[in-house]
Amino acid sequence: MDNGNGVGSNKVKNGKKGKLDSSLESKERMVSKKVTFLGDRMDNENARKKAKKSEVDSSFGGKEQMVSENGVDGKRFKRPKKGKLDSPVVVLRIGLEICSKLGDVMGAIGIFDLAKKEGITLGQYHYAVILYLCSSAAVGVVQPAKSGRSGTNLDEKSRLFEEHSGELDRVSQTLDDVIQLINDHENSKGRTRIEVGDNVKEYALKRGFEIYEEMVSDDVPMNEAILTSLARMAMSRNDGDMAFDMVKKMKDLGINPRLRSYGPALSVFCNNGNLDKAFEVEEHMLSHGVYPEEPELELLLRVSIEASRSDKVYYLLHKLRTGVRKVLPSTADVIEKWFNSKTASRVGKRKWDQQLINKAVENGGGGWHGQGWLGSGKWNVKRSFVGKDGLCKCCGEKLVTIDLDPVETERFAESVAKIAKQRDRNSNFEKFQKWLDYYGPFEAVVDGANVGLFSQRRFKPSKVNTIANGIRQMLPSKKWPLVILHNRRITGDKMDEGLNKTLVEKWKTADALYATPTGSNDDWYWLYAAIKFKCLLVTNDEMRDHLFQLLGNDFFPKWKERHQVSNYF
């Protein structure tokens, strides 16, 4: 797309319906071969009260679990040994965990009602699971918890809500019902998603707010997951202000909001065409260090186009340019809608300083100027493909390579060095930095171990030499690239052999070999060197393990795309 301005393209098994006996001790008996209660029988009232208090304290006085996007955040509840349950409190807790795994909102509500009926105190974990399920059902789709194992072997139960949508009273009435639930689903695998009908949505929403009020009256502390669930329930009522208030409340409670926390409010405001409120949410996000991703940017872009706000559209297109490497089809449709609109054909400066534009393009790294819409008239919008050679199949023009932001690159190098120093010993990495300052710069860096071991078991220096020499011939200076190897790769009997020894000595003579010391991870060394010198990195390492995940998903993927060279020699 171009007009000359440079901006382009549960079911809960019903079980027994009878009432509980007047005391819980009559229920503490063997109910199946799998499930028994531990401890004494609590023969008198004082013993019962004392034991119950102990159970409550031990279950809720220590570590409180949090609920994540789909269930449990932090440490997952550790179930007792197979076949044994400690107390009614634990029975309810395990029952809730299973409801979370199955996406059983009706079972969770039933457990809440049973707990209130029996006077069992519920903690933050219980409320978090119940409210998560209520908020999911209120939206219309229940996503079972990640704490459960995903699978599709519960297809016969996926029709739960449809089959029993008119039987909202079919919930756990007794502890026996909950125990039966545990036994039935002890080894079940969770489903991926469950769609619910309107009557269940309304019931879950109504009960969700009632349960929240009970939580407030019980002085149970809030967490991010609970407030996010409330925001989602507010979204189901089309109440964007309440959803946004839940996020604002997090700040008052000293809780850091997450991206998911803002979704409900943003969705309501955007879907209602309230552009000002939508961008107020975005501003709040940015002020708390939370950055919108493609789904949020698409919502904002859609409402901006509907409001004919060309300035907001321009702002968001650049957000997509810098933050999204490949837009989804739905986002592409929204972008196309803008450029086909009458508003898009009318906006734009009719006169501009071409030298200023050229300078802005150069300063920006190529491909964009950031000076606003230029020119006017109808856009010529076509869908096309870009070949491996970078040529557009529609207009024949070659895409411009856009340099990475030098400030971002410097920050990235600093973050890598910081992590490496924290994980290294004896200031080894600092010595490496000084070595680079003295012998650098280099035009390419070779991950010696990866290249020398690729597609084989035994390390071959000759393979490293072939790749390094081939790279050298293509470099402007013809200087040897920097080869980084762990010291164990260049020592030992094998390395004392004729050819191997000769190659290592050749690299050393050319000041092109750095041997990382024992205890150091050579990954940080070759990565840092390539970032520091803004040069090519020769490695087949996809850099996807937990170490590289520390670097985040903002800048690192873009850097890899521009600097990594793979070899299949």
Comma- or semicolon-separated keywords:
569 residues; mainly alpha; Serine Threonine Protein Phosphatase 5, Tetratricopeptide repeat; Rossmann fold; two-stranded parallel sheet; 9 strands; 50% helix; disordered N terminus; zinc; repeat; manganese; nuclease
Describe, in plain words, how this protein is organized in 3D:
With 569 residues, the chain is mainly alpha-helical. The protein folds into three domains: 29-221, no CATH class; 292-403, Tetratricopeptide repeat domain (Serine Threonine Protein Phosphatase 5, Tetratricopeptide repeat), CATH 1.25.40; 407-565, 3-Layer(aba) Sandwich (Rossmann fold), CATH 3.40.50.11980. The chain has 24 helices and nine strands. It has helices spanning 45-60, 88-102, 105-118, 124-139, 160-163, 175-184, 198-217, 224-236, 240-252, 259-271, 275-287, 294-306, 310-323, 329-339, 342-346, 354-363, 406-423, 428-439, 448-453, 461-474, 498-509, 522-532, 546-549, 556-563; strands at 36-37, 84-85, 141-142, 194-195, 444-447, 482-486, 513-516, 536-538, 564-565. Helix 2 runs antiparallel to helix 3 (105-118), helix 2 (88-102) packs across helix 6 (175-184) and helix 4 packs antiparallel against helix 7 (198-217). The longest helix has 20 residues, at 198-217. The chain is flat. One of its GO terms (molecular function) is ribonuclease P activity. Keywords: Hydrolase, Magnesium, Manganese, Metal-binding, Nuclease, Repeat, tRNA processing, Zinc.
